[in-house]
Amino acid sequence: MVAEGGEEEKIKIGVCVMEKKLLSAPMGQILERLQAFGEFEVIHFGDKVILEDAIENWPICDCLIAFYSSGYPLEKAEAYATLRKPFLVNELEPQHLLHDRRKVYERLEMFGIPVPRYALVNREFPYQELGYFIEEEDFVEVHGSRFWKPFVEKPVDGDDHSIMIYYPSSAGGGMKELFRKVGNRSSEFNPEVRRVRREGSYIYEEFMPTGGTDVKVYTVGPEYAHAEARKSPVVDGVVMRNLDGKEVRYPVLLTPNEKQMARDVCIAFSQAVCGFDLLRCEGRSYVCDVNGWSFVKNSYKYYDDAACVLRKLLLDAKAPHLSSTIPPTLPWKVNEPVQPSEGLTRQGSGIIGTFGQSEELRCVIAIIRHGDRTPKQKVKLKVTEEKLLNLMLKYNGGRPRSETKLKSAVQLQDLLDATRILVPRTRPGRESDSEAEDFEHAEKLRQVKAVLEEGGHFSGIYRKVQLKPLKWVKVLKSNVEGEEERPVEALMVLKYGGVLTHAGRKQAEELGRYFRNNMYPGEGTGLLRLHSTYRHDLKIYSSDEGRVQMSAAAFAKGLLDLEGQLTPILVSLVSKDSSMLDGLDNASIEMEEAKARLNGIITSVAKIVNSNGYSECPWMTDGAGLPSNASELLRNLVKLTKKVTEQVRLLAMDEDEELTETSSYDVIPPYDQAKALGKTNIDIDRIAAGLPCGSEGFLLMYARWKKLERDLYNERKERFDITQIPDIYDSCKGLDELFKVAQLLADGVIPNEYGINPKQKLKIGSKIARRLLGKILIDLRNTLEEAISVAELKCNHDHQSASKKTDKEDTDYQSKLFIKNEDMRRTSTTSEISMDQDDDDDKETKYRLDPKYANVRTPDRHVRTRLYFTSESHIHSLMNVLRYCNLDESLQGEESLVCHSALERLYKTKELDYMSNIVLRMFENTEVALEDPKRFRIEMTFSRGADLSPLEKDDSEAISLHQEHTLPIMGPERLQEVGSYLTLEKMEMMFRPFAMPAEDFPPPSTPAGFSGYFSKSAAVLERLVNLWPFHKHGSANGK
């Protein structure tokens, strides 16, 4: 290709794309760079030529850039390529596949590329009924393959971007629609939609929990892939933008397996320039969408790389005699504009305390109690009604001696239907012939009915019923000889209440916001919001209780500055771990002993003495914190409880009369839990109407108080039950006279239920929090190993940087960083990481920033954040281990981890209220030698949570709080002296006797042979080589 005059003729690149795509900034930047090399002439076809002219009249070129977009005549471009045979950067025929998601998945699977588990529902016409498709409340089934909610529903049409995610009833139900960005939104949540679409053909696939981050991969040829993380539209649908209005994304490193996947996608679809979506979930990566021609936006480094790779591709195809080596100085570098930095629209964070320049935050671990809730309630009644017994048999598989749990909407609706028939239409007076037991039974059935009717529909996680058979008889089998057992009596237990209130949601969100602004010195909020990218590695765990899960979701909303309702946030970001954060079974015997001893102390008439030689440490005595006149207060509590019960009874009677007149439940403003999950002002109308928060009417409130009164003091047996004190205290905030008495008793009783003295507190605390303590140690150890690994690599890298490095060495460094981290963890002698179910490196996804593309001082360093949401029992237990661990025989002579002044404050604190929390932060002093114990420092703080004291004042703040029914959360208090230094080594030594050993944690759930999952057989590799269109000798268009 030599022109007249001896000059090399330029290679003609035809750009046959719609003008809208041609005029995009990335396309312009890359084509400019290609021309700057001097070897190419770029010919723009233009819309008029493409749409109106015959292909014979199209410009002739050596290489063709052509790809489909809206309105593009793909078949016409194919005909041109057949006529002129240019080298195709992206093959044209395979672009038809990209319009059909079924064909995309089929092609991915053909090439051994992992995709989410999926099934196809093909309809020939809208709403066609299909025998192989079943939809139930919480799952769909396709050809016998079941997909439990949350699942994803995608139209088979690749150009239809309306993708739905359906959420389980246990998380509040509802559906979120994802769509192409419109302004600042990329998704919308609809709490009312629970049924899937039927108007077309769809793919159903498992929802992949990715921690709220999506990865977009961009290939330029099979050997180059650039990846970026962005906030997933699944979380809240709000697009995060920088000051220029562009979506904020961060470049990340791909693992070796992911690089192989990128190569395979490129080959499978014969598209050199190709974008696809990657889901990272539990150590595996999956391709969920292939987009075809895509360029990265706003990255000058990427533009440089793409131009260099495309140049080599084109020269190898059309001028192999020319050298494709990259020149020492790129031709367009002379007047290159400075790359703008990512200025985030949100303000930066504040700082707690003072830190030296050499100290960097490495880890934040917080254990947090749930927010304000309605009182928990239980109704127990023995039932003999055949309708209820039949219901039990229906849902326990017909086994007469097995208990049944009713939780789903379908099951609870069945129970409600039966209860409505059984509840008497009229309420007989006590003076009638009805016996007292019949009267009580009817009242309890009425209460069950009222609870089940709350809110107008069953939305989730706050009501459950157990039916346990108690008596059986033998009856003759119907139509068959012989006998069978049949239950004739069962115990029905309805548990309800304990719902997170509007105040609880607000408290959790506010605390999340406080953490965002104060726990991360010097970090911009945008980095936290995109939490799984380069610096923030966040995981949130919750117990199984609905109020705890929703507190975690509301906190995440504040922490990450999210918008919208809580259900999508819960499903995307919160992991349930009931074995670590639920239950008291391990310590039940010791707790019963403590309660029995406590009962003896309180009910004895003698005054309680709180000294016993511990005047400087009053917390060391048995029953510390109990008021000296506890016995007198208890009797007073019984009187006041009766008084409140009578007042509520009168209100309930009024409500009952109104109900009789209207014969409906419309008197009370309806309470929709599904809507309430995402709104902090749902109860305002009820408060204004003088009604209780939540969905409880006065009838249910009366039943609750009557039960409390009866359980607190059994008049027939003349016996007190002190375990009811916390429940009464829980129910009477706002009833001043009763509250003052209940608070005095509860402040003494609740801490002592977890141990009557420090040694018993330590024993009970270590049993309840054993698994959580083990997990905290693993979190800290993982952070330590990662920090050391990065420090060693950085040290080696600094030595190399004195001499000039090539691009290959730079890439090798990044590759070594990943491999070194992997190897170090897998060969760890203590094996904490490989044994930790949630933090195993193969399972817990890392979105590590690629330093070549971002201006960050220490890009390889992470801040690890672990949040554990739980109940009061685990907060007390962990605090007791923290402050009394030195009392263990194995640690005798050691000082407490908590300083004396903090022990005194904790003794006076009494209650760890809603949203109380314990926070451990680990700092690394980078100027201290790696082996020095002082390299890693632990800082401990606690907050006692919701604070009542502002209500006791008579000022504007108190009036506002009364109106909102919301208590403020107290700020953190130190557990160490200012200036003291707790090393990680010391904390590990003090925790270890009480923590579950790392090797006892279950192994990660990643299936065996994980690495082999991505490997290719020789036959597949051979097929890949033959199909590769850019291979010099394998492509028909190559010359």
TrEMBL record:
Sequence ranges assigned to domain ATP-grasp in this UniProt record: 105-319
InterPro entries from the UniProt entry: Acid_Pase_AS, ATP-grasp, His_Pase_clade-2, His_Pase_VIP1, His_PPase_superfam, VIP1_N
Catalytic activity: 5-diphospho-1D-myo-inositol 1,2,3,4,6-pentakisphosphate + ATP + H(+) = 1,5-bis(diphospho)-1D-myo-inositol 2,3,4,6-tetrakisphosphate + ADP; 1D-myo-inositol hexakisphosphate + ATP = 1-diphospho-1D-myo-inositol 2,3,4,5,6-pentakisphosphate + ADP
Pfam families linked: His_Phos_2 (PF00328), PPIP5K2_N (PF18086)
Start and end residues of each stretch annotated as Disordered: 824-846
CDD domains: HP_HAP_like
Primary subcellular site in the record, as a coarse category: cytoplasm
Location(s), subcellular: Cytoplasm, Cytosol
Record's keyword terms, sorted: ATP-binding, Cytoplasm, Kinase, Nucleotide-binding, Transferase
EC identifiers of the protein: 2.7.4.24
Superkingdom: Eukaryota
Function: Bifunctional inositol kinase that acts in concert with the IP6K kinases to synthesize the diphosphate group-containing inositol pyrophosphates diphosphoinositol pentakisphosphate, PP-InsP5, and bis-diphosphoinositol tetrakisphosphate, (PP)2-InsP4. PP-InsP5 and (PP)2-InsP4, also respectively called InsP7 and InsP8, may regulate a variety of cellular processes, including apoptosis, vesicle trafficking, cytoskeletal dynamics, and exocytosis. Phosphorylates inositol hexakisphosphate (InsP6).
Family: Belongs to the histidine acid phosphatase family. VIP1 subfamily.
Protein name per UniProt: Inositol hexakisphosphate and diphosphoinositol-pentakisphosphate kinase
Taxonomy of the source species: Eukaryota, Viridiplantae, Streptophyta, Embryophyta, Tracheophyta
